[in-house]
Amino acid sequence: MQPVDLIRKKRDGGELSAVELRSFVAAAAGDGSWQSYQLSAMLMAICIRGMTHAETAHFTRAMTDSGRTIDLAELPGIMVDKHSTGGVGDKTSLVIAPLVAACGVVVPMMSGRGLGHTGGTLDKLEAIPGFRVGLSIDEFKSTLLKVGTAMISQTPEVAPADKKLYALRDVTGTVESIPLITASILSKKLAEGISALVMDVKCGSGAFMKTQADARLLAESLVRVGSANGLKIECVITDMETPLGREVGNLNEVREAVEILQGRTEGRLAELSILLAAKMLKLAGVVGDDATGIVRIRAAIADDAGLHKFHELVEAQGGNVAAMERAFRTAPGAGRRIVADHSGRIHRLDAELIGRAAVALGAGRRRVEDDVDAHAGVTLLADYGDPVRSGDPLFAIFATTEHGFAEAGALLREAVAIDSGVPPTRPLILETIFS
Q1: pLDDT tens digit string along 79-127?
Q2: What is the distance, to the nearest Å, from the Cα of residue 57 to the centroid of all Cα atoms in its chain?
Q3: Do 226 and 282 belong to one domain?
Q4: Which residues are annotated as catalytic?
Q5: Which of 111, 213, 287, 309 has the fewest CB atoms within 10 Å, measured from its CB?
């Protein structure tokens, strides 16, 4: 099979066989049979022509098999994970993993770093003093046995084809392809050794899927392809027009997640975290429906079981709980407030612009090699729909230096719209899709 023949076939709208897709994936994993420009050409052909569900399922399985699949057979029960397609202020994984583990379900999580204006779970975890995300597979399994959950970065052995193709997609304008997104997400999850997955597909200004229609297409693809590869899977499409929670920035997001585990359960962040955790219990067979799962998760918050499990996780992965709590109380070197310039109600808090402001402050990366300032970020002091008066504080911005304050301030002023009247209610949960 010559690369150019397969590229032409997909370019002309043909359906690639499982064998042909394995040839493409093996080349991406490094067998030397394709050049990078040929891999890029195939990615563009897929992006333009799309893939059938059968193709996407074969492609996902080939990506999974391009590296090591983690064997978790010695662990009890059904392994369940949760994955988000990325948003601003989304720290639900930090809440969900310890709560579900506290209810007796094993939760292996292989997470990612921030991408563009969206935050990454690994960057948040590394804001905890001493926390190690780079565990070996043996350390990963040991932590799962000991704690019931572990949260790590992708290891070089897991889905190596995805690492190469993702890097090429990022520079060839092919990131948004639904088949490519589906295979990228699910190949890593299948290699993790899980049996069930709850997906949170974000939709809105702060998400990669800007419209509900596109989010639905991705969710349907994930459900069909996941099911074809033996996963129990349920997708929730959720609103990302405004940030999730009041904190955008790594250390402060960890603190906000811990506050939910301590019992602060009002607001959209807690609502979504509890619902996703309940769905994980349902897929694991611990409860029969979401409502019963919510009761179980709320009980794990009320008796501090989730909080204790989070502390176990931190200590098991090299972190220091006392140092983390001290860091929560330590203010960064510089701070400033952005205030309302007139009175009314907040009609818009644009999540993407707020995420970009956090990046300008140093809470995210513009280049892969950029360092992240754990203390940098944005605190929302007013929410969508809130009444404000001229001069009222809207945002607090923080960083260890004042570099980036002017850019962040300009982005935040653009992100907020204040008008008369009451803005329309925007639901958090837009749709649920399952097999």
Answers
A1: 999 999 988 999 999 999 999 999 999 999 988 776 666 668 899 999 9
A2: 22
A3: yes
A4: 81-84, 121, 169, 184, 188-189
A5: 213
